[in-house]
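ok so i was messing around last nite and threw this chain in just to see what happens. nothing serious, just curious
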Amino acid sequence: MARRPDNPCPGLLVIDKPQGLTSHDVVSRVRRLAHTRKVGHGGTLDPMATGVLVIGIGKATKLLTWVSGHSKEYRATIRFGVATNTDDAEGVATAAVGCDSLSEDQLESALAPLRGDIMQVPSTVSAIKVNGKRAYALARAGEDVELAARPVRISRLEVLEPPRPAECILEETDADNAPDVQALSGPVRVVDVDVVVECSSGTYVRALARDAGEALGVGAHLTALRRTRVGDVPLETAMTLEELSAAVEAATPKGEPDAEPVLPLVPLGEAARTMFPSLLMTEAEAGAFTHGQAPRRSRDELAQWATEVGYRPGDASEEETSPIAAVAPDGTVLGLLRIDASRLRTVLVF
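result:
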């Protein structure tokens, strides 16, 4: 018997998102393959961007809050000499000062202030809400959008290859579609620079390009962006949508119209144990946990366990405190816990 669409087999998929699709487009395709609407993603990628997109199915969607909060790594190409209204190649040019060359010292002077703990103003066309509306919707409607700077951490920002002087051809701006943008067209000298970025959740790589261009006085935008890691999930573990479709077709029983699709999922429990430290419970504790009751451990017991697994509970904020996988004696992951004021609290029961 096929599993009901509202109760799919839970787990995670790691997709290599192609260029031109939104993250929601990928979710829609997986929904069709999995025959369920209980599908979500752990961290939006712009249509221009490619790379790691973690997809949750069924109860595994409840893990996506922590997936999206993990650090991320990107490979990007910054084009110096042209600024756009979206800070990437999907926008239209707002300034074309041009750039003939960049020395290592010039690049370093622009990138150095962007490393470490910084305050970053998100891109105007981001998905951040302003008075209940998405910033990109307001910007595309012609409204002025001012976003507040937010704290982010850039743990790595390095140039990968020597700068490449080039020439790009700007297409004339459609004044009807972008009435506030100066009409720019023709050839412009630019310099392309490939960089690697390791950053905290909430960082806008295209805003880094924008700020570097402003620092040099020539403007800049992204022409390529590829996410190569989310937390401990590398690009090497990702599959394309075509590979996913082929895997589902090969694994799903033939000649059974109502057969449940078989997806190459990372099981819910395995995903939780990979993402979070594990706390082994007794049979009695496991039985109580299924009803939402957290195990009782003394302060000393929790301190010893935290030392053994290298766990740092942080403060009492649920958003900032890393969860703990609650493991039954048989190895089954039953849900998530956290340490709050030296006590275990139930976060989620699978």
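not much to say yet. DSSP finds nine helices and 19 strands in the chain.
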